[in-house]
Amino acid sequence: xxxxxxxxxxxxxxxxxxxxxxxxxxxxxxxxxxxxxxxxxxxxxxxxxxxxxxxxxxxxxxxxxxxxxxxxxxxxxxxxxxxxxxxxxxxxxxxxxxxxxxxxxxxxxxxxxxxxxxxxxxxxxxxxxxxxxxxxxxxxxxxxxxxxxxxxxxxxxxxxxxxxxxxxxxxxxxxx
Length: 176
What we know:
The chain is mostly helical. The protein has seven helices and no strands. It has two domains: about 1-35; about 40-170, no CATH class. Helix content is about 70%, strand content about 0%. The protein is globular and about 55 Å long.
């Protein structure tokens, strides 16, 4: 926890140095309402499923997932890292499905433009997903049908919430 206080002081120092006084006030205000003084699973899950995905903020979604993987990289338990990687694939697929359902195939193409090479290098059967913007009715295509179901989304949402609860409320990563 000592590291967290040190990091908060560094942020304050930076904001004062740069003259970001309004941001400093907002930062202090947010900290004063921080009940758990740490990762809040509900806020992270909401950020993913209620903010970044529905508003098509792919860059921020990818950055958040990358940050979380970086946090886990210090963990000695490889199972957590592997699980997060699998959840990341599903979350990114959910982003694509949401964009298709909203009629925003342009966001899917934009997403692939930013992340396509990285996704192909990692594997996980991404190749068929590059065709989804050009499939007439992907929700009835056998390759993608499962990902368009309400049950799949609910299972993903629950899995993400449970995983983050296990990580942040069970092992207290980053509090060392």
